[in-house]
């Protein structure tokens, strides 16, 4: 891979129009992240952290600028190609985990693999491995609504990792967990980065989590700047 960054944004702008006023969240902003880095995006409520994460995750497109992933011009992809790219390369963890109620932990974790068309047997084995990795080996057949909040968030992490994505994006991953469960999830993220060399970007107000990351970034006057 050489020195090609995993993520590169150049001259990226994004604004929202509300009634007659335009809100400039990003204005000709640049950002470069190498494979294996861990990044926290921090700052006051409303400055645009989630907007930036959504652009990085290709859930939203910038108004202008260029965006490359491992040197690939992903803004040139149409929505269908982007969806396939996203499922293969990016894992998402949100504060509210959007697990499928009524389905078991292992069925939830298998989902991204099934969408990608991989063989069910392979993906099941891998899903079980991932659940063991997040210390839920004894819970694989539990329906998700019968798991605790912390356990459900670990299922969500296992699901985000089942495709072994190059990039894990997390938006307040421990925002609704108590301190003990938060601590366990923070440690797990750091370990996954070490073991798998996975690039991790978290949006968080939690200082324990941001303190574990290699670099902290924030948004100021439309630019992405170090803290
Ligand atoms: N689709 C949209 N349309 C209009 N305004 C939007 C849209 N999405 C976000 N905004 C506005 O853009 C600003 C940045 O929102 P964003 O969610 O990125 O902030 P944030 O830093 O993640 O905040 P928080 O820490 O509270 O989650 C906010 O003022 C929000 O109201």
Name the ligand types.
adenosine-5'-triphosphate
User: What's the domain count?
Assistant: 1
Query: Which structural category fits the helices and strands?
Result: alpha/beta
Overall helicity: 25-40%
Distance between the termini: 28 Å
Oligomer: single chain
Family: Belongs to the ABC transporter superfamily. Macrolide exporter (TC 3.A.1.122) family.
InterPro entries: AAA+_ATPase, ABC_transporter-like_ATP-bd, ABC_transporter-like_CS, MacB-like_ATP-bd, P-loop_NTPase
Organism: Desulfobacter hydrogenophilus
Pfam family, one: ABC_tran
Task: Give the helix/strand layout.
Layout: E1 7-18, E2 21-33, E3 38-41, H1 49-56, E4 64-69, E5 72-73, H2 79-89, E6 90-94, H3 105-115, H4 120-133, H5 149-161, E7 167-171, H6 179-196, E8 199-203, H7 207-212, E9 215-220, E10 223-226
Parallel strand pairs: 3-8, 3-9, 6-7, 7-8
Antiparallel strand pairs: 1-2, 1-4, 4-5, 9-10
Helix pairs in contact: 3-4, 3-5, 4-5
What does this structure look like?
Belongs to the ABC transporter superfamily. Macrolide exporter (TC 3.A.1.122) family. GO terms for molecular function: ATP binding; ATP hydrolysis activity; transmembrane transporter activity. Keywords: ATP-binding, Lipoprotein, Nucleotide-binding, Transport. This is ABC transporter ATP-binding protein. The structure is a single chain. The protein has 227 residues and is an alpha/beta fold. The protein has a single domain, classed as P-loop containing nucleotide triphosphate hydrolases (Rossmann fold, 3-Layer(aba) Sandwich). It contains 7 helices and 10 strands. The protein has a 6-stranded mixed β-sheet with strand order 6-7-8-3-9-10, with helices on both faces. α6 links the parallel β7 and β8. α3 runs parallel beside α5. It is globular, with a radius of gyration of 18 Å. The protein starts with 6 loop residues before the first strand and ends with a strand. Bound molecules: adenosine-5'-triphosphate (ATP). Adenosine-5'-triphosphate binds next to β1, β2 and α1.
